[in-house]
Design goal:
The protein is an alpha/beta fold. It contains 8 helices and 5 strands. About 45% of the residues lie in helices and about 10% in strands. It comes from Rhodovulum steppense.
Length: about 200
């Protein structure tokens, strides 16, 4: 019989090693979902209900829409743990530009504002939005030690802090690193595959 696990929500913004976190959690035995690509133009009205429903079906969550609903998930799942993946702002925005280019999506417009679904030309705004999110997350969990792990995977953090936080043994194999230095071309290929699904 499968051991019950508390929910784990990855609530760092996209391109903060969320795919690496997903691989790591899967290797630890979690059922992981995300990112959940919703290109519905009415996403602002639907994403919260979608997230609530999806949260009942998996153990762990990462990438969009989870950074937008961390307060609601904290209320809904009081025993859950939260992981804020972070990285240096300059490296983060460079990764955004390489991966997304000029592509705009309803989800990024929801995060960054109308007309700002592409990072190109919106670099300072993207960084400021990410920094506000990180500050809000830290403030929300400030008086509850053990609920939040801030994890800089790009900066070298790996199994030790993650496994200590989750209370699980450290695997013997190397921590997974996904999408390392993905190029703009790689980003276009991923987006093309997404559109033909």
């Amino acid at each position: 019989m499968r051991r019950r696990r508390d929910k784990v929500f990855g609530i760092g913004f996209h391109k903060t090693a969320t795919s690496s976190l997903k691989r790591a959690l899967r290797q630890l035995g979690y059922r992981v979902t995300g990112p959940n690509h919703n290109h519905d133009q009415d996403i602002a009205w639907t994403f919260l209900d979608h997230a609530r429903a999806l949260s009942t079906r998996y153990d762990a969550f990462q990438d969009n829409p989870w950074p937008l609903v961390f307060r609601e998930m904290d209320d809904m799942w009081p025993e859950a743990k939260f992981i804020l993946t972070v990285r240096d702002p300059e490296g983060w925005i460079a990764s955004q530009l390489r991966y997304f280019g000029e592509e705009s999506t309803p989800m990024r417009e929801l995060i960054y504002g109308p007309g700002r679904g592409s990072p190109l030309g919106n670099e300072a705004h993207y960084i400021a939005t990410m920094q506000r999110h990180e500050a809000a997350v830290r403030a929300h969990f400030a008086d509850r030690p053990g609920k939040l792990l801030v994890l800089d995977i790009v900066g070298g953090a790996g199994w030790d802090p993650l496994c200590a936080f989750l209370g699980v043994p450290v695997p013997r194999h190397t921590f997974p690193h996904a999408n390392k230095a993905a190029s703009r071309g790689d980003g276009w290929l991923v987006r093309l595959k997404r559109k033909v699904r």
